[in-house]
Amino acid sequence: MVLLYAILIGVMFGAAVYLLLRRSIVKLVFGLVLLSQATNLFIFTIGGYEKNNPPLVEKGQLVPTAPYVDPLPQALILTAIVISFGVLAFTMVLMHRAHESIGTDDLHQMRDTDK
Amino acid sequence: MKMLIVSPILIPLVAAILALLLPRRLGKLAGVAGPAALLAASLALLHWVLRDGIQVLQIGNWPAPFGITFVVDIFSAIMVVLTGIIGFALAVYSFHSIEPERFKFGYYSLFNILLMGVAGAFTTGDIFNMYVWFEVLLISSFVLMVLGGERAQIEGAVKYVTLNLLSSTFFLIAVAILYGKLGTLNMADLAVRVSQTYDDTLVKVASLLLLGAFGIKAAIFPLYFWLPASYHTPPAAVSALFAGLLTKVGVYAIIRTFTLIFIWDRTVTHNVILIIAGFTMFFGVIGAVVQFDFRRLLSFHIISQIGYMMMGLGLFTTVAISGSLFHIIHNILAKTNLFLISGFVYHLQGSYALKKLGGLYRRQPLLAFLFIIPAFSLAGIPPLSGFWSKFLLIKAGLQLEGWIIVSIALIVSLLTLYSMTKIWAEVFWKPDPQAKPYSVEKNAKYYSMLMPIIFMAAINALVGLYAEPFLNLTLKAADQLMHPSIYIEAVLGGYLP
Amino acid sequence: MQSHILKIAARHLLLPFTIMSIIILWRGHNQPGGGFIGGLVAASAFILYNVAYGVQDAKKILRLDPRTLIGIGLAIALFSALLSVFLRMPFMTGMWVDVFLPLLGHQHFGTPLLFDTGVYLTVLGVILTVVFTLSEES
Fold first, then answer.
1. Could you give the ipTM of this predicted complex?
2. Partner of B299 for a Cys bridge, out of B119, B228, B370, B477, CB 3.0 to 4.6 A?
3. What residues does each domain of chain A span?
């Protein structure tokens, strides 16, 4: 199972990098989306993929029933999802504005600030 | 009393909320009062840390390493004080110089949230929490960069946003690897565990990924191309804020992680840092030499100066690191002020192109004098502040017989002087090419822009002319950084894995 | 695009979506849900309304400026974090009270719920700012 996830993550990162290297703004946004998803999956996998009890304390006990899964990677992913959600929402608006004011979705036309 | 540790985060947050909710004029006042209070709180914090040693706050009463910890050592406290100084000066500078349209969109709330993110990154003791603070400051910097929506701003922002998102991804992957391998996110705990497993390949990969992630933010060679493509596009106050603070957050993160956690494999990590430092200095200044736009020239200087900060870390002795810290102090003060001056010149003459400017020495002798202080200090002319940091760095380099890096540092210093005199000659010395008489109204806007420049120049001159206490301060901070066990002991206390 | 079905649906879905979002916020502490998701659900109701009737009407029905919502949300979250400091406990310590409410019975209230409410309003404000900005452009 871990191997499957590893391959999937690799494919996602590969696709994301491919999209980032294209010249179109739309593909750039898709690349960024895919990149953040791949990272989240990576955290999930490397945090320990195992089938155990949920990390919840039953009534009348002080600790969860062992062996229980580590809840932290999921908390990390949740935080990362929320952050990437906000950032990507901003990126969408930015790319929309960029397309409006520059009038093209070709990144090679955006060289005014490099001169 | 413990609340003082998180006050650099809470004060800007309160100011941001007030700036958002209060009516226009009151909101603007809250936007300036926030950074002023931040400066006062940070000075109290620095005093406290110097007197009583490293201070630690466990959020929500969860003991380290299980909860999120905030740690303030001398290095953090110095950085927070600098945040306060910059924040205050720029808030005053923005008061009249930013257009009402931008204020309507929440300029001061974003400004204060940016300060909150920066202060959070400086004080946190948890590596994932540091990622969160990075994102806080990034998102607010994204919006600040595009606020106003001019074409150049949006174009610069596309590059800035893409590269910074990439760097955040690297950061997150590195954090995930560290957690997966070592099972902790607390930096002190990480330091203990890395000392036991530093030979592990994954840990090495994580350390270099972090160097890459922070390197993009700090704009080190060869990851700096986004900086001169974007920093010159927003209004001068915003560029000054980015130039003064944001890259230094990256530098802070590199210094923190590579003096606390990854110190066991120095032939790889710290030699790489030293080589990068040399390239960063050299190519940054070469870029500056050929530029003819005021702010783009200064942008390239940011990169070149980052090299000096990295050089001290690469050499890795107490003297070298204190040189780095001194250079950070000096550079934040001088660089921000140069950007402020460029904005003031724009206000006077309506351009950033060096060819179109001129004649300011005659018309604004005070401004010319104020320019001399940060400019010569940047070039390292004694007895200004840049001289002392370069002196420490070169002394440390000579002690370790690093001839190459020392000679690069000296050559770069000379080229810095050359490009500063270029600005001097073009903007102040040569006659005004527009040659039409104009009069500058000495209104509130004029003084609200001039005062912060005088304030920053005064602090800059003080650090240079009265360097002794500041040298002692950085030496103490460097001494703490060179002995990570003090930090670990302060955070983990009785609990050691 | 004018669609009567969409218009009527958007108008009638506004209330159920909002109630649903508050339920999601409420159950969030021990069950799936929470401020973030609740805020998203509430925002989706206004987005739907925005699609059906246009930005002006959507803004009118929200009444508040979305940026004010962000400010209120942040203020509530900050207050929940500072409450423990006023009671001389470390910053952000979770605190709980049991309250008896008519109809709902005994309920367990705490600072995390208050924090989540702040998150709810902030998320709602942020998303609506983004959506309104985008639809005003085109």
1. 0.92
2. B228
3. 2-108
